[in-house]
Amino acid sequence: MHYAKVQKKHAEKLRDALAKNNLLANNADVLHSDSYVLFPVTIATATIKKLIRQNGGMLIEKKGRAQGNAKSKINRNKEVAKGYDILGNIAIVETDNPSSRAAKRYSEEIMSSSKRITTVLAKAGPVSGRYRIRKLSYVAGKRTYVADMIENGCRFVFDVRKTFFSVRLSFERQRISALSKGKENVMVLFAGVGPFAVELAKKNPRSSVVAIELNKSAYEMMKKNILINKLKNVVPVWGDVGKVAKHYENFADRIIMPLPKDSHSFIAHAAGISKDKGNIHIYMFVKKDNPAREAMKKLRKELGDSGKLKLLKWRKVRDYSHSEIEVVLDLRLNKG
Ligand SMILES: C[S@@+](CC[C@H](N)C(=O)[O-])C[C@H]1O[C@@H](n2cnc3c(N)ncnc32)[C@H](O)[C@@H]1O
């Protein structure tokens, strides 16, 4: 596990910088000693190392659990909640009993750990349905469901009850955006409130991006996010990929498909949208054993003879269930 280690006097500044960029890992505890605070971080690249240094800290790797004299306050409440995600002003906790006094106390501690977090909500069900949204219940702080956050230098405003947004894809957005160079046509299918489309369009101003989303609320928020990020090179489209794809035949040099639950069933539509020799980045849930082989088998079966897929690279994005993981595959399509 990688940590950003910082003297206590600089801890708040560094914590805010990490939170702002969604770099705080949710799968490990914040550690405290007499003089230092250690924040677990999601990724450890040279850019992150620089950001940590600029905010008075240093990046370290730590195996196992750290021993500290003082325990984190939030640590002590581990039995109340399994962890939390930060979406700018809103923290979303996982707890079995959101209305308990313990959950309220835990929420107060989260809010006092950062000035930016002013609302705490709790997960009240799984991500489900076509729109991939989940029920949330209010726990503490300001009663709002509108998140206002910065991710990788882009601002996003959206209603957390009506739309999908996962901070765990933050690194993927950075990675894919960095792959887009020069004048290229990019298609984001299943675009949500626009995080892939907005970041890519901002980082590569010479790109022309089309972003398709079915959920009207998410589409409306994507329009807003394109505006607040002052982008002229993204066209948002409200519609079903299965129906809209035919209007974009041979359009894209690059296609992004972030619907892991069943994006594979849209691969033939993606092939129609792609130019010959296009790049496709597809997110999928697969079994832990032989993930890339299983994914490629599924995709080739769905694609039939609409083209040939070459696997350039794959990586695990996150654990999904006890037997499944989410992966992303970078593919080259040859329509022949
Ligand atoms: C897992 S979310 C990803 C959203 C966004 N790309 C992100 O990274 O935050 C998938 C999105 O696909 C949308 N969606 C599901 N089926 C769709 C379809 N057939 N056509 C267009 N969008 C669809 C959902 O409404 C949801 O917003």
Report on this model:
The protein is of the alpha/beta class. It folds into three domains: 1-73, Alpha-Beta Plaits (2-Layer Sandwich), CATH 3.30.70.2580; 77-144, Met-10+ protein-like domains (GMP Synthetase, Chain A, domain 3, 2-Layer Sandwich), CATH 3.30.300.110; 166-334, Vaccinia Virus protein VP39 (Rossmann fold, 3-Layer(aba) Sandwich), CATH 3.40.50.150. The protein has ten helices and 17 strands. The chain has helices spanning 11-20, 46-54, 73-76, 101-113, 170-179, 195-203, 216-228, 241-244, 267-273, 291-303; strands at 2-7, 31-32, 36-40, 57-61, 81-87, 90-95, 119-123, 136-141, 146-151, 154-159, 185-188, 208-213, 234-238, 252-257, 274-287, 308-319, 324-334. The protein has a seven-stranded mixed beta sheet, sandwiched between helices. The protein is globular. It starts with a strand and ends with a strand. The model is unreliable at 65-76 (pLDDT under 50). The protein binds S-adenosylmethionine.
